[in-house]
Amino acid sequence: MSLEKEIKQTRPFSSKKEKAIVNIIYTNNWIFLNYSKNLKKYDISNQQYNVLRILNGQNGKPITINEIIERMLDKMSNASRLVDKLLAKGLVSREQRQGNRRACDVILTEKGKLFLEEVKTDMNLNEDKMSPLTDEEFDTLNELLDKMRKKVQ
């Protein structure tokens, strides 16, 4: 379905740029909603999932809260609170960093790794049903989005 039909747009967009921006925002929210629905059964938020993925990408190396914040997709997230919630679930561990009392190292636990593997299966199924694009089209989309952000920054 076209964007205009999805949002019940009754007048034409003022420009192709305006339509593209609205389309990106709408699509982002659509993806976010699909991910949220999928993660709900695991009692985890998109932001918590993002932290777990960041930690998983560390391959067992510890990372500080500030480094997590730099890598977060949602820059408005409270990474300390997210880590606390993941700690309570046993998915991460946290230790005070040697030589710096204000910093702590966070690492994915074995339980966290197993949890990610379980969630990953559902997330891959979710991604499969969300898009009819080919790999080549995904390459083009990624290049265009990267190009747009480069221009804006």
Automatic annotation (TrEMBL):
Taxonomic superkingdom: Bacteria
Keywords on record: DNA-binding, Transcription, Transcription regulation
SUPFAM superfamilies: Winged helix' DNA-binding domain (SSF46785)
One Pfam family here: MarR_2
Record bears the keyword Phosphoprotein: no
Residues spanning the membrane: none
Domain HTH marR-type: residue ranges: 1-150
Protein name as it appears in the record: MarR family winged helix-turn-helix transcriptional regulator
UniProt organism field: Lacihabitans lacunae
Lineage: Bacteria, Pseudomonadati, Bacteroidota, Cytophagia, Cytophagales
